[in-house]
Design a protein that fits this description.
The structure holds 2 protein chains of 2 kinds.
Chain A (H helix, E strand, L loop, with lengths): L19 H6 L4 H8 L2 H10 L12 H6 L9 E6 L8 H8 L1 H15 L3 E6 L4 H16 L4 E4 L4 E9 L9 H8 L23 E5 H20 L1 E2 L2 E2 L1 E7 L6 E6 L4 H6 L13 E5 L8 E2 L24 E6 L4 H15 L5 H18 L5 H15 L9 H15 L1 H10 L2 H9 L3
Chain B lengths: L2 E4 L2 E4 L6 H7 L23 E7 L6 E3 L4 E2 L9 E4 L3 H16 L15 H9 L15 E3 L4 E4 L8 H8 L6 E4 L6 E4 L12 H5 L5 E3 L12 E6 L8 E7 L2 E7 L12 H5 L14 E4 L2 E3 L3 H19 L4 E5 L5 H14 L4 E4 L9 E3 L10 E3 L7 H11 L2 E3 L1 H9 L5 E5 L10 H6 L5 E6 L4 H5 L2 E4 L8 E4 L5 E4 L12 H8 L8 H9 L20
Parallel strand pairs in B: 1-6, 17-18, 17-22, 18-21, 22-23, 23-24
Antiparallel strand pairs in B: 1-2, 3-4, 3-5, 3-6, 7-8, 8-11, 9-10, 12-13, 13-14, 15-16, 15-24, 19-20, 25-26
Helix pairs in contact in B: 2-3, 7-13, 8-9, 8-13
Classes of the chains: A alpha/beta, B alpha+beta.
Chain lengths: 435, 541
């Protein structure tokens, strides 16, 4: 897609892109000035019309989310979800590190639309560099009068704070984030009440992802029709993709949601093919939580809907991990199960016990003590975690179930071959020492 | 009343409760761990999941939604249709039970909870007989978390009831969850043990054998215990309790659900404060004294002896100087019987209510709470039945004195004969002034648990029984009349107070509180219909 004109990443290669002056000279804060002359409802309407779907993973339309706020509310909070903790994902980091004012502008507009006077950027603790960049940018914005009281002479008032997390994956879930922001353990809340009704400190709250908010200024500036002209129906607008693994150019790229997974790996504007003649074995295209694609399924379109046709949970964060033929699929599986077992908050039984059980099984298989029936067992365990909505409070258990189930199902032959190679007596001997 | 359909069964429910509570109220056994009506809902054990009929988002047609709902968190609404018996729900539950046992040590043979453990019960009823896990179990530590309580975290199901109790009811927040995921454990903060006046409730709340009462640890298998409903005599609150005993030995007290009084809770003072009943210093037989010689009469003669002594006294001195000191530890029936007897022999008898220990002020939980925020109160008045005695004495219309006035009158030599009932847990209840003056009495009958200066000086000493051995009713601080039953027999050789007072008052046969309340109801109608509080649903635990 050589003819794609970058939107979200257009400033990142500018000299001093994190500086307010540079951002403004590239046309920054014009959208915020424009938005603050409108009414909040008009802003919300434009975002609704643009069908800006949340970039955090679930793809819920941002404008609709804002519309859920009760009309008679007195205090509203805006939370910016910068807890980007999905394993191979780093697009928010690029946005915050290279173009912090774009996020601040998006935050101002979203806060205005939702009439929030306090915005909290919940940033994962590992983001040291982005934290300093963002904090500098916020200080600059305050100094310029773009934050604080009477922004752009509109009378609108907004304070932005950065809150740094403590390193939990589950705090990227919106209610887990809210709990953590309140100073509690990051355990997702039961819904209802939804955050729009009762969120942070029991007040109506909107939680939006960094990338979602970065889209907002462009929508205001260039209109909903322009936004919808990018991509395909249902998956409109610019999107950031990440590619990691043995590709020639790993990194964060921007494009429309019409590209296929193959383009993301091989395209000139993206990964530029596999390194030193390696071949693709598997791809986890949406962060690890969405599930796995085999080398035969690379024609999957990276939009909100197509992944379901390949047995995946959704688009997720659109960050692909590419796994080459040399890799041992057992270790891939064990790595993934270890992650979820470590990150489950432990509230819901299915997730707490299921993730750790799957980790025990996967680690054992990777250690060469697997049994064929373990493959059925691990799939059966995932069925009690992500088959039916409502089994657990948040989506972490679905996120754990999908990659594990799809890996075992799609690469079953490989697992079986490994297990067949194991000397059977040693397997039994090891198992007999366990209990 | 609104109606809900649960498993094709139409059930009426009280508005404002969750579906789970409606099901439990209707007697259905819906498994649950984290839900407890006295605590906030966290919906985290995911055991009470159900299916619900909802209108289709497009066609509007009512059908089973392709989603599971935690019934503890879903409010019951009129006309709602839910089910717990579908294959999805049943297999989900079966797997959930498997999860609970994955890392559980299965040490039921040495676990105090065995026999009243909902992990056992649910595994039998809703689980599968074997685990599919072949991997090593996670081993969690056993911890001493407070002066009265142990935590075996390997048995814990992480329902967090105990954590919520210390946060929401005791307001002391000693317990917390540490670590994450499968390594989560309940713990206390370093140097801050679980030590508050109502901490024992966390052991009752624990649905499994994770939280253990040191006092009851390894004492008894619960299936040997027999329970008697009782009322705690520790203060004037009148908490409903259960006395668990085996072979006439009491092993523990547990709270019973009593809405508006103690709800589901009791305090540690009540829970552990009954041990005096086990003391071997108890008085167990009646005793007569003439000068320095004592004699143990036969029980069947006691009534006649007392009749004789008092009528002889009245003949000699009249009944003007006669006093009966009724103890606030007595049941209403016992007090009424004794007063009836005294009035019969000496119509001018003066009635006195024995000393009432008052400790500080009423203690509300959470501390500093008022009104509806208050979840539990320990009363400062450390006696169960002052109000009952007042009702009985009022009705009898006899002369009264305060206890202090009575002690003074004894000192002044104005009292010639007295029947003084003790029955307090402490032997030290007799004031020094009374100990000194007691020699001035012509006739003294002392009825008590332990030997005091009074029993030593008394012409007739009668054994009193502990509340676990008696039956009757108490009237709490708010005027609520509550019955209690006897859990164990009195010590060998001892008769129950109720029985000998019944005979003394001129009745024949076996003393039963119901019979006496019938007699009392002739003049005090409030005693006509004394009932237990409505029990909590059978399958609520």
């Amino acid at each position: 897609m050589a003819d794609y004109e970058p939107v979200l990443l257009k400033n990142i290669s500018l000299e001093g892109s994190t500086d307010l002056k540079v951002y403004e000279s590239a046309g920054g804060y014009a959208a915020a000035r424009k938005a603050l002359k409108m009414t909040p409802d008009e802003v919300t309407e434009i975002v609704k019309e643009a069908n800006l779907r949340g970039r955090g993973g679930a793809g819920f339309p941002a404008g609709v989310k804002w519309g859920f706020l009760p009309k008679d509310r007195e205090v509203t909070y805006l939370c910016v979800n910068a807890d980007e903790s999905e394993p191979p994902t780093f697009s928010n980091r690029v946005l915050m590190e290279k173009d912090p004012h774009q996020l601040i502008e998006g935050t101002i507009i979203a806060a205005f639309a939702t009439q929030a006077q306090k915005a909290f950027i919940y940033m994962r603790v590992e983001f040291h560099e982005p934290f300093h960049v963002m904090q500098n940018a916020i200080d600059q914005a305050y100094a310029a009068g773009y934050l604080g009281k009477n922004i752009f002479g509109s009378g609108f008032e907004l304070d932005v704070f950065i809150h740094r997390g403590a390193g939990a994956y589950v705090c990227g879930e919106e209610t887990g984030l809210i709990e953590s922001l309140e100073g509690k353990r990051g355990c997702p809340r039961i819904k209802p009440p939804f955050p729009a009704v009762e969120g942070l400190f029991h007040k109506p709250t909107v939680v939006n992802n960094v990338e979602t908010l970065c889209n907002v200024p462009h929508i205001i500036e260039r209109g909903a029709a322009w936004f919808k002209s990018i991509g395909a129906e249902g998956s409109e607008g610019p999107k950031l993709f990440c590619a990691s693994g043995p590709v020639n150019r790993p990194g964060c790229f921007e494009g429309p949601m019409t590209i296929t997974c193959r383009e993301l790996i091989e395209g000139d504007g993206y990964g530029r093919g596999m390194r030193s003649g390696k071949e693709v074995k598997a791809v986890l295209p949406g962060g690890i939580s969405m599930g796995v694609l085999t080398a035969d399924e690379l024609n999957m379109v990276m939009d909100f809907d197509d992944p379901r046709n390949f047995g995946l949970l959704g688009l997720g964060t659109a960050a692909a991990v590419i796994i080459d033929q040399q890799q041992d699929i057992r270790k891939v599986l064990a790595n993934i199960t270890r992650f979820y077992s470590h990150e489950s908050c432990g509230q819901c039984t299915q997730c707490r016990e299921g993730t750790s059980w799957m980790d025990k099984i996967a680690t054992r298989i990777a250690d060469g003590v697997g049994r064929t029936e373990d493959l059925d067992l691990i799939v059966d365990v995932t069925k009690n975690m992500g088959m039916m909505p409502g089994l657990s409070i948040c989506g972490l258990s679905d996120g754990a179930a999908f990659p594990i189930r799809t890996i075992v199902q799609k690469f079953r032959g490989e697992f079986e071959a490994y297990i067949a190679e194991q000397p059977p007596t040693s397997t039994l001997r090891v198992l007999s020492t366990f209990n | 009343m609104p109606k809900i359909t649960i498993d094709e069964q139409e059930i009426e429910f009280a508005a404002g409760i969750p579906v789970l509570q409606a099901a439990l109220d209707a007697g259905l056994d819906i498994p649950h761990y984290c839900y407890h009506p006295g605590l906030t809902v966290v919906a985290s054990c995911r055991l009470c999941l159900m299916e619900m009929k909802m209108p289709h988002p497009k066609s509007g047609e009512l059908g089973w939604a392709p989603k599971l709902f935690p019934s503890c968190q879903t409010p019951a609404r009129d006309g709602m249709v839910v089910r717990f018996n579908s294959e999805t729900v049943v297999t989900g539950r079966e797997r959930c039970m498997e999860y609970f046992l994955l890392n559980h040590p299965l040490d039921c043979p040495v676990c105090d909870q065995a026999g009243e453990c909902s992990l056992q019960d649910y595994s039998y009823k809703f689980g599968k007989p074997e685990s599919r896990m072949v991997d090593p179990k996670l081993v969690m530590p056993k911890k001493d978390i407070g002066p009265q309580t142990l935590l075996y975290s390997d048995r814990c199901v992480m329902c967090t009831r105990c954590v919520r109790f210390t946060k929401e009811v005791s307001g002391t927040s000693e317990l917390c969850i540490t670590n994450r995921g499968t390594n989560s454990e309940i713990d206390v903060f370093p140097g801050k043990p679980l030590d508050n006046p109502i901490q024992g409730n966390v052991v009752d709340l624990c649905p499994v054998g994770a939280l253990l009462d040191k006092d009851f640890l390894f004492k008894q298998r619960v299936w040997f215990l027999q329970s008697a409903p009782s009322i705690c005599p520790g203060c004037s609150a009148g908490c409903a309790i259960r006395v668990d005993a085996n072979d006439d030995i009491v092993y523990r007290l547990k709270p019973r659900f009593n809405p508006g009084v103690n709800d589901w809770w009791m305090c540690d003072e009540g829970r552990f404060g009954w041990k005096y009943a086990l003391s071997d210093e108890r008085i167990t037989t009646p005793r007569l004294r003439r000068g320095s010689s004592t004699k143990t009469p036969k029980w069947e003669d006691v009534s006649e002896i007392l009749q004789y002594r008092f009528s002889q006294h009245v003949d000699e001195h009249g009944s003007g100087g006669m006093v009966v000191v009724l103890s606030p530890m007595m049941s209403c029936e016992e007090a009424w019987l004794l007063l009836s007897f005294m009035l019969k022999v000496g119509p001018n008898v003066t009635a006195v209510i024995g000393p009432i220990l008052s400790v500080g002020e009423d203690q509300a939980f959470p501390a500093g709470s008022t009104g509806d925020e208050t979840k539990f109160i320990i009363r400062s008045e450390k006696a169960p039945n002052r109000r009952g005695l007042e009702m009985i004495i009022d009705q009898a219309g006899c002369e009264t004195l305060s206890f202090d006035e009575f002690v003074e009158s004894v000192g002044d030599g104005e009292v010639s004969a007295a029947w003084i009932v003790g029955g307090y847990p402490e032997k030290t209840w007799v004031p020094k002034a009374l100990e000194k003056a007691v020699g001035k009495l012509e006739l003294l009958v002392a009825q008590d648990l332990f030997e005091t200066k009074l029993t030593a000086a008394a012409a007739v000493t009668l054994p009193a029984c502990a509340f676990t051995e008696r039956a009757g009713c108490f009237v709490n601080h708010a005027g609520l009349i509550q019955p209690f039953e006897s859990a164990v027999a009195p010590p060998n050789g001892c008769h129950r107070d109720g029985q000998y007072l019944y005979e003394l008052a001129g009745y024949q046969g076996l003393y039963t509180p119901d019979r006496v309340r019938e007699l009392m109801a002739a003049t005090m109608s409030q005693f006509a219909d004394v009932r237990e509080a409505a029990p909590a649903p059978v399958h609520l635990h």
